[in-house]
Amino acid sequence: MTVFYSDTYTIPLPDGHKFPMVKYRMIRDALLERNILTIDELRESPLFPASELRLAHDPAYVEHVCNLTLDPKIVRRIGFPLTEGLVTRSLATVGGAVAASEIALEDGISGNLAGGTHHALYDAGEGFCVFNDIAVASLRLLNARKVHRVAIIDVDVHQGNGNSAILGDLPQVYIFSMHGKKNYPFIKVPSTIDIELEDGVCDDEYCTTLIAHLPAIAEFKPDIIFYLGGSDPLHTDSLGRLSLTMKGLEDRDRIVFEWAKHHGFPVSLALGGGYSKPIQHTVDAHVQTFALAKKLLA
Fold first, then answer.
1. Does residue 212 have a pLDDT over 90?
2. Considering the chain, what is the average pLDDT of its residues?
3. Whose CA is closest to 288, among 243, 229, 233, 235?
4. For residue 217, what is the DSSP state?
5. What is the pLDDT, as a whole number, of residue 47?
6. How far apart (Å, rounded) are the C-alpha atoms in residues 56 and 49?
7. Is the Cα torsion angle 279, 256, 6, 135 positive or negative in sign?
8. In the chain, pLDDT over 90 holds for what percent of residues?
9. Which CATH number fits domain 2-8+20-297: 2.60.60.30, 1.10.10.10, 3.40.800.20, 3.40.50.1820?
10. DSSP state for residue 29 in the 8-state scheme
11. SS3 content of the chain, % helix, strand, coil (to 5)
12. What residue segments make up the domains of the chain, in order of their start?
Protein backbone atom coordinates (compact mmCIF):
# COMPACT_ATOMS: atom_id res chain seq x y z
CA MET A 1 0.00 0.00 0.00
CA THR A 2 1.56 3.27 -1.13
CA VAL A 3 0.98 6.30 1.09
CA PHE A 4 2.24 9.86 0.57
CA TYR A 5 3.40 12.29 3.25
CA SER A 6 4.37 15.95 3.37
CA ASP A 7 5.13 16.59 7.03
CA THR A 8 8.70 17.55 6.15
CA TYR A 9 7.17 20.90 5.16
CA THR A 10 5.96 22.55 8.33
CA ILE A 11 4.42 25.87 9.24
CA PRO A 12 5.53 27.72 12.37
CA LEU A 13 2.40 28.74 14.24
CA PRO A 14 2.02 31.13 17.17
CA ASP A 15 1.55 29.75 20.68
CA GLY A 16 -2.04 28.85 21.37
CA HIS A 17 -2.97 28.30 17.73
CA LYS A 18 -5.83 25.78 17.50
CA PHE A 19 -4.39 23.80 14.58
CA PRO A 20 -2.30 20.78 15.72
CA MET A 21 0.40 20.76 13.04
CA VAL A 22 2.37 18.11 14.95
CA LYS A 23 -0.26 15.45 14.22
CA TYR A 24 1.02 14.81 10.68
CA ARG A 25 4.45 13.65 11.77
CA MET A 26 2.97 11.76 14.71
CA ILE A 27 0.67 9.80 12.37
CA ARG A 28 3.51 8.85 10.04
CA ASP A 29 5.73 7.81 12.95
CA ALA A 30 2.95 5.74 14.49
CA LEU A 31 2.22 3.92 11.22
CA LEU A 32 5.88 2.88 11.09
CA GLU A 33 6.31 2.11 14.79
CA ARG A 34 3.19 -0.09 14.84
CA ASN A 35 4.33 -1.95 11.70
CA ILE A 36 1.26 -0.91 9.76
CA LEU A 37 3.34 0.56 6.94
CA THR A 38 6.94 -0.09 6.00
CA ILE A 39 9.37 2.63 5.04
CA ASP A 40 9.14 1.39 1.44
CA GLU A 41 5.40 2.01 1.40
CA LEU A 42 5.82 5.69 2.29
CA ARG A 43 6.70 8.25 -0.36
CA GLU A 44 7.28 11.96 0.00
CA SER A 45 4.55 13.90 -1.77
CA PRO A 46 5.60 15.61 -5.00
CA LEU A 47 5.05 19.34 -5.28
CA PHE A 48 2.13 19.96 -7.61
CA PRO A 49 2.90 22.59 -10.28
CA ALA A 50 1.26 25.87 -9.32
CA SER A 51 0.49 26.56 -12.97
CA GLU A 52 -1.80 23.51 -13.08
CA LEU A 53 -3.91 24.57 -10.11
CA ARG A 54 -6.11 26.46 -12.57
CA LEU A 55 -7.89 23.13 -12.97
CA ALA A 56 -9.81 24.07 -9.83
CA HIS A 57 -8.70 27.59 -8.89
CA ASP A 58 -8.69 31.15 -10.15
CA PRO A 59 -5.20 31.81 -11.61
CA ALA A 60 -5.15 35.23 -9.93
CA TYR A 61 -5.78 33.64 -6.53
CA VAL A 62 -3.01 31.09 -7.10
CA GLU A 63 -0.62 33.85 -8.15
CA HIS A 64 -1.35 35.92 -5.05
CA VAL A 65 -0.83 32.91 -2.79
CA CYS A 66 2.45 31.92 -4.41
CA ASN A 67 3.75 35.52 -4.46
CA LEU A 68 2.68 36.07 -0.83
CA THR A 69 0.49 39.00 -1.91
CA LEU A 70 -2.86 37.55 -0.90
CA ASP A 71 -5.49 39.89 0.54
CA PRO A 72 -5.06 39.87 4.35
CA LYS A 73 -8.80 39.23 4.74
CA ILE A 74 -8.44 35.95 2.87
CA VAL A 75 -5.31 35.09 4.86
CA ARG A 76 -7.37 35.48 8.03
CA ARG A 77 -10.07 33.22 6.58
CA ILE A 78 -7.44 30.57 5.91
CA GLY A 79 -6.21 30.78 9.48
CA PHE A 80 -2.48 30.33 8.81
CA PRO A 81 0.23 32.96 8.34
CA LEU A 82 1.05 33.30 4.63
CA THR A 83 4.66 32.14 4.25
CA GLU A 84 6.82 30.32 1.74
CA GLY A 85 6.48 27.28 3.96
CA LEU A 86 2.70 27.37 3.71
CA VAL A 87 2.86 27.64 -0.08
CA THR A 88 5.24 24.69 -0.36
CA ARG A 89 3.23 22.55 2.04
CA SER A 90 0.00 23.38 0.19
CA LEU A 91 1.52 22.35 -3.15
CA ALA A 92 2.75 19.11 -1.55
CA THR A 93 -0.70 18.42 -0.13
CA VAL A 94 -2.21 18.65 -3.62
CA GLY A 95 0.67 16.65 -5.09
CA GLY A 96 0.11 13.87 -2.59
CA ALA A 97 -3.60 13.74 -3.36
CA VAL A 98 -3.03 13.59 -7.11
CA ALA A 99 -0.36 10.92 -6.78
CA ALA A 100 -2.50 8.85 -4.38
CA SER A 101 -5.47 8.98 -6.73
CA GLU A 102 -3.39 7.64 -9.62
CA ILE A 103 -1.90 4.85 -7.50
CA ALA A 104 -5.38 3.95 -6.21
CA LEU A 105 -6.56 3.34 -9.76
CA GLU A 106 -3.72 0.83 -10.20
CA ASP A 107 -3.63 -0.83 -6.77
CA GLY A 108 -7.17 -0.33 -5.45
CA ILE A 109 -6.08 1.72 -2.46
CA SER A 110 -3.68 4.56 -1.68
CA GLY A 111 -3.64 7.57 0.60
CA ASN A 112 -2.25 10.91 1.56
CA LEU A 113 -1.19 11.67 5.15
CA ALA A 114 -2.54 15.18 4.67
CA GLY A 115 -5.23 16.76 2.57
CA GLY A 116 -8.95 16.75 2.55
CA THR A 117 -8.71 20.52 2.16
CA HIS A 118 -12.39 20.72 1.33
CA HIS A 119 -13.02 24.33 2.38
CA ALA A 120 -10.79 25.86 -0.30
CA LEU A 121 -12.94 27.66 -2.89
CA TYR A 122 -12.24 28.58 -6.51
CA ASP A 123 -10.89 32.03 -5.65
CA ALA A 124 -10.23 31.91 -1.90
CA GLY A 125 -9.04 29.68 0.89
CA GLU A 126 -10.62 29.30 4.29
CA GLY A 127 -10.81 26.96 7.26
CA PHE A 128 -7.12 25.92 7.22
CA CYS A 129 -7.42 25.10 3.49
CA VAL A 130 -5.40 26.92 0.80
CA PHE A 131 -5.86 24.79 -2.34
CA ASN A 132 -8.53 22.11 -2.77
CA ASP A 133 -6.63 18.87 -3.19
CA ILE A 134 -9.56 16.58 -3.92
CA ALA A 135 -11.04 19.00 -6.46
CA VAL A 136 -7.73 19.24 -8.29
CA ALA A 137 -7.19 15.47 -8.22
CA SER A 138 -10.75 14.79 -9.41
CA LEU A 139 -10.58 17.24 -12.30
CA ARG A 140 -7.17 15.99 -13.33
CA LEU A 141 -8.43 12.40 -13.57
CA LEU A 142 -11.60 13.45 -15.38
CA ASN A 143 -9.83 15.72 -17.87
CA ALA A 144 -7.27 13.02 -18.66
CA ARG A 145 -10.15 10.55 -19.11
CA LYS A 146 -8.58 8.18 -16.63
CA VAL A 147 -12.01 8.05 -15.01
CA HIS A 148 -15.53 8.96 -16.11
CA ARG A 149 -17.20 9.33 -12.72
CA VAL A 150 -15.86 10.36 -9.31
CA ALA A 151 -17.50 9.99 -5.89
CA ILE A 152 -16.42 11.84 -2.77
CA ILE A 153 -17.43 10.37 0.58
CA ASP A 154 -16.78 13.18 3.03
CA VAL A 155 -17.28 12.20 6.66
CA ASP A 156 -15.26 15.04 8.13
CA VAL A 157 -17.46 16.69 10.76
CA HIS A 158 -17.39 19.95 8.77
CA GLN A 159 -19.27 20.25 5.49
CA GLY A 160 -17.07 20.35 2.37
CA ASN A 161 -18.28 23.67 0.99
CA GLY A 162 -15.25 24.01 -1.29
CA ASN A 163 -15.72 20.59 -2.85
CA SER A 164 -19.35 21.39 -3.59
CA ALA A 165 -18.65 24.90 -4.86
CA ILE A 166 -15.99 23.71 -7.33
CA LEU A 167 -17.36 20.30 -8.33
CA GLY A 168 -21.03 20.35 -7.42
CA ASP A 169 -22.37 21.26 -10.86
CA LEU A 170 -20.52 18.46 -12.64
CA PRO A 171 -22.69 15.46 -13.51
CA GLN A 172 -19.57 13.27 -13.40
CA VAL A 173 -19.08 13.94 -9.67
CA TYR A 174 -21.15 12.64 -6.76
CA ILE A 175 -20.49 14.35 -3.40
CA PHE A 176 -21.77 12.78 -0.19
CA SER A 177 -21.18 14.85 2.94
CA MET A 178 -22.20 13.80 6.45
CA HIS A 179 -21.44 16.57 8.91
CA GLY A 180 -22.50 18.54 11.95
CA LYS A 181 -25.57 20.66 11.24
CA LYS A 182 -24.55 23.48 13.58
CA ASN A 183 -20.83 23.33 12.86
CA TYR A 184 -18.51 25.24 10.51
CA PRO A 185 -18.94 26.37 7.76
CA PHE A 186 -22.05 28.27 8.73
CA ILE A 187 -22.91 28.96 5.06
CA LYS A 188 -22.93 25.54 3.44
CA VAL A 189 -22.82 24.86 -0.30
CA PRO A 190 -25.18 22.03 -1.30
CA SER A 191 -23.58 18.68 -2.14
CA THR A 192 -25.24 15.88 -4.08
CA ILE A 193 -26.36 14.56 -0.70
CA ASP A 194 -25.91 16.43 2.57
CA ILE A 195 -26.64 14.66 5.86
CA GLU A 196 -26.79 17.19 8.69
CA LEU A 197 -26.28 15.68 12.12
CA GLU A 198 -27.41 17.21 15.38
CA ASP A 199 -24.87 17.78 18.15
CA GLY A 200 -24.08 14.71 20.22
CA VAL A 201 -24.89 12.01 17.65
CA CYS A 202 -23.44 8.66 18.78
CA ASP A 203 -22.05 5.58 17.05
CA ASP A 204 -25.22 3.64 16.21
CA GLU A 205 -27.18 6.52 14.68
CA TYR A 206 -24.14 7.69 12.75
CA CYS A 207 -23.33 4.31 11.21
CA THR A 208 -26.96 3.48 10.47
CA THR A 209 -27.29 6.76 8.59
CA LEU A 210 -24.12 6.11 6.63
CA ILE A 211 -25.20 2.60 5.61
CA ALA A 212 -28.54 3.92 4.35
CA HIS A 213 -26.91 6.22 1.80
CA LEU A 214 -24.20 3.99 0.33
CA PRO A 215 -26.52 2.25 -2.19
CA ALA A 216 -27.19 5.55 -3.98
CA ILE A 217 -23.46 6.11 -4.37
CA ALA A 218 -23.02 2.59 -5.73
CA GLU A 219 -25.78 3.23 -8.28
CA PHE A 220 -23.74 6.19 -9.56
CA LYS A 221 -21.01 3.65 -10.48
CA PRO A 222 -17.95 5.79 -9.70
CA ASP A 223 -14.56 4.83 -11.07
CA ILE A 224 -12.85 6.03 -7.89
CA ILE A 225 -13.84 6.98 -4.34
CA PHE A 226 -12.15 9.87 -2.56
CA TYR A 227 -12.63 9.08 1.13
CA LEU A 228 -12.23 12.10 3.38
CA GLY A 229 -12.11 10.28 6.70
CA GLY A 230 -11.82 13.06 9.24
CA SER A 231 -11.33 11.97 12.84
CA ASP A 232 -13.19 15.03 14.13
CA PRO A 233 -16.53 13.26 14.79
CA LEU A 234 -14.66 11.75 17.78
CA HIS A 235 -16.12 12.69 21.16
CA THR A 236 -12.77 14.11 22.33
CA ASP A 237 -12.46 16.47 19.37
CA SER A 238 -12.37 20.12 20.40
CA LEU A 239 -14.13 21.28 17.21
CA GLY A 240 -16.39 18.31 16.52
CA ARG A 241 -19.58 18.45 18.65
CA LEU A 242 -20.43 14.80 17.86
CA SER A 243 -19.99 11.87 20.25
CA LEU A 244 -18.44 8.99 18.32
CA THR A 245 -16.11 6.61 20.11
CA MET A 246 -12.95 5.15 18.62
CA LYS A 247 -14.97 1.98 17.96
CA GLY A 248 -17.58 4.08 16.16
CA LEU A 249 -14.93 5.54 13.87
CA GLU A 250 -13.59 2.06 13.20
CA ASP A 251 -17.10 0.87 12.33
CA ARG A 252 -17.55 3.88 10.01
CA ASP A 253 -14.35 3.10 8.13
CA ARG A 254 -15.06 -0.63 7.98
CA ILE A 255 -18.52 0.02 6.52
CA VAL A 256 -17.09 2.17 3.72
CA PHE A 257 -14.09 -0.04 2.98
CA GLU A 258 -16.06 -3.31 2.89
CA TRP A 259 -18.70 -1.65 0.69
CA ALA A 260 -15.99 -0.35 -1.69
CA LYS A 261 -14.33 -3.77 -1.80
CA HIS A 262 -17.65 -5.46 -2.57
CA HIS A 263 -18.24 -3.15 -5.54
CA GLY A 264 -14.63 -3.03 -6.70
CA PHE A 265 -14.27 0.72 -6.23
CA PRO A 266 -10.69 2.03 -5.85
CA VAL A 267 -10.27 4.25 -2.79
CA SER A 268 -7.98 7.25 -2.30
CA LEU A 269 -7.70 8.34 1.34
CA ALA A 270 -7.32 11.87 2.70
CA LEU A 271 -6.91 12.74 6.37
CA GLY A 272 -9.36 15.59 6.83
CA GLY A 273 -9.70 17.26 10.22
CA GLY A 274 -8.81 16.15 13.71
CA TYR A 275 -8.42 18.36 16.77
CA SER A 276 -8.72 16.09 19.79
CA LYS A 277 -7.38 16.98 23.18
CA PRO A 278 -5.10 15.18 23.76
CA ILE A 279 -3.98 15.08 20.13
CA GLN A 280 -2.94 11.43 20.55
CA HIS A 281 -6.61 10.49 20.14
CA THR A 282 -6.61 12.09 16.69
CA VAL A 283 -3.40 10.29 15.79
CA ASP A 284 -4.78 6.93 16.93
CA ALA A 285 -7.98 7.44 14.94
CA HIS A 286 -6.17 8.18 11.68
CA VAL A 287 -3.72 5.32 12.19
CA GLN A 288 -6.73 3.07 12.74
CA THR A 289 -8.20 4.22 9.41
CA PHE A 290 -5.04 3.47 7.45
CA ALA A 291 -4.51 0.14 9.21
CA LEU A 292 -8.04 -0.95 8.32
CA ALA A 293 -7.69 0.26 4.73
CA LYS A 294 -4.54 -1.79 4.28
CA LYS A 295 -6.12 -4.87 5.86
CA LEU A 296 -9.29 -4.75 3.80
CA LEU A 297 -8.27 -3.17 0.50
CA ALA A 298 -4.56 -3.62 -0.11
1. yes
2. 97
3. 229
4. H
5. 98
6. 13
7. negative
8. 97
9. 3.40.800.20
10. H
11. 45, 15, 40
12. 2-8+20-297
